[in-house]
Predict the structure.
Amino acid sequence: MKILVTGANGYLGQGIVSSILESGREVIATDLQTDFVDCRAERINGDIFEMKNPYEELGEPDILLHLAWREGFVHYSDAHIEDLPKHFSFVKKMAAGGISQIAVMGSMHEIGFWEGSVDESTPCHPVTPYGIGKNALRDLTQMICEQNDIVFQWLRGYYIVGNSGHGNSIFSKITLAEREGKEEFPFTWGQNQYDFIDYEDFCRQVACTVNQRSEHGIINICSGRPEKLADRVERFIQENHYKIRLEYGAFPDRSYDSKAIWGNDQKIQRILGESKC
């Protein structure tokens, strides 16, 4: 079974490709550049949106794991809407080529303002171009899969915790500030509660999910429990033995962020319980 991973050179792609390889699967990794991708993968540099027949040009894979997405941490970027037709066209071409399973990385920002646990039946009312773009791609991908009898998996990601300085999450920014020798990090009051999942666990959950077909549809990639942002960030600083301190109240909370939101983990727990990855 060959798994094609798009956006493989990104923050998520690098770890996910390695996790899939550890499970024994063959990986075709593609991105504009693939210099940070695990060398055990077959690496293909190129723009997937410019390919006339991406299914053939990318090695006729069995499974598509579509991670590619531009400016994911800039929630109000116009790119999320401008690129949507390109994502739709790419997925449609892969389906026409003969792919048998399509998994796409989603986001809890598709939900919009919601308080409580989120499962596949939770209504979506996204309020940013990022959330709107992801939500629209989910509907379009599901439609394509149903029309072509393809296994559909939508991997709804939550808040990832990692100490890489290359990402754009608050944890990456704190790591970068620590490395630059800064003493304080401007912060909100951090009282909102989110579903945090460590980077390694996130990558393993994604790898296990695409390695099976019994569980499909919307699948939360999550820890299944809420935690205050301030508590998780303080714990992150302690875990990594950083000296930097949080400057509480420097920024207001974002108005569109939920006060408490977390993923229902029943599906992913079934996958992990039955998986050999």
The chain has two domains: 2-159+198-222+265-274, 160-193+226-247.
